[in-house]
């Protein structure tokens, strides 16, 4: 990632903790909740690796290709689960957008990105395509605001059943939502550095 080393370290720690939290959430779970937790953990750890400040630890030139393959595979996995539809469709669609955004950032930040041609000859500008970056920033800004709004406690009338309904979070759906919110904020911050 491009940007100050301190913010890179903070972002890396935030993503690693979110990934570890998602992974810990999968213990004792089955089915969709376990799959979602593992996918979120992989995204968190991948984001942490990508956020590692290049000023202190220079990633090898092939690291960006590994990120592209890893997150491309995650995008294909999300597409596989989207085909089934169901009430988890929005969650899988979000994973698809996130995985494709990580592929986009890996390609945009690869050594020599945008240097394959001259300005005006079809080469993307260094750091990515401004319109696509702007659309992803808008998506994640809205996602973060919506997720934060769902974390605000709402008074419940006595005798009314409460449903977590967030796409799988086990016994503590607010932890799953907080993890997703954290990674949404981190993705927004990473996109800002393009």
Question: Care to give the gist of this entry?
Answer:
Keywords: Membrane, Transmembrane, Transmembrane helix. The chain is mostly helical and 194 residues long. It has helices spanning 5-25, 31-51, 63-82, 89-109, 130-151, 173-192.
Describe the protein's architecture and organization:
The protein has six helices and no strands. It has helices at residues 5-25, 31-51, 63-82, 89-109, 130-151, 173-192. The chain has one domain (5-112, 125-153, 162-192). It is globular, with a radius of gyration of 18 Å. 64% of the residues lie in helices and 0% in strands. Helix 1 packs antiparallel against helix 6, helix 3 (63-82) runs antiparallel to helix 4 (89-109) and helix 5 (130-151) runs antiparallel to helix 6 (173-192). By secondary structure, the chain is an all-alpha fold. Residues 116-124 and 164-170 have low confidence and may be disordered.
Q: How many beta-strand segments?
A: 0
**Major pleated sheet:** none
Order of helices and strands: HHHHHH
Strand content: under 5%
Total of domains:
1
Organism: Streptomyces fulvorobeus
InterPro entries: DUF5134
Protein name: DUF5134 domain-containing protein
Keywords: Membrane, Transmembrane, Transmembrane helix
Question: Keyphrases for this structure?
Answer:
mainly alpha; 6 helices; 0% strand
Topology readout:
Layout: H1 5-25, H2 31-51, H3 63-82, H4 89-109, H5 130-151, H6 173-192
Transmembrane segments: 6-24, 36-56, 62-82, 94-117, 137-162
Pfam family, one: DUF5134
Keywords: Membrane, Transmembrane, Transmembrane helix
């Amino acid at each position: 990632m491009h940007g100050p080393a301190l913010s890179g370290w903070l972002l890396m720690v935030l993503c690693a903790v979110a990934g570890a939290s998602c992974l810990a959430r999968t213990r004792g779970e089955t089915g969709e909740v376990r799959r979602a937790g593992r996918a979120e953990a992989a995204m968190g750890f991948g984001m942490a690796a990508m956020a590692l400040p290049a000023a202190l630890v220079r990633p090898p030139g092939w690291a960006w290709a590994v990120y592209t393959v890893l997150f491309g595979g995650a995008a294909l996995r999300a597409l596989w689960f989207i085909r089934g539809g169901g009430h988890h469709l929005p969650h899988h669609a979000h994973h698809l957008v996130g995985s494709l955004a990580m592929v986009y950032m890996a390609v945009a930040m690869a050594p020599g990105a945008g240097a394959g041609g001259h300005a005006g000859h079809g080469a993307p500008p260094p750091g990515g395509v401004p319109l696509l970056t702007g659309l992803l920033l808008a998506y994640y800004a809205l996602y973060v605001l919506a997720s934060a709004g769902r974390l605000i406690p709402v008074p419940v009338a006595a005798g009314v059943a409460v449903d977590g309904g967030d796409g799988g979070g086990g016994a503590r759906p607010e932890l799953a939502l907080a993890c997703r919110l954290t990674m949404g904020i981190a993705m927004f911050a990473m996109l800002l550095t393009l």
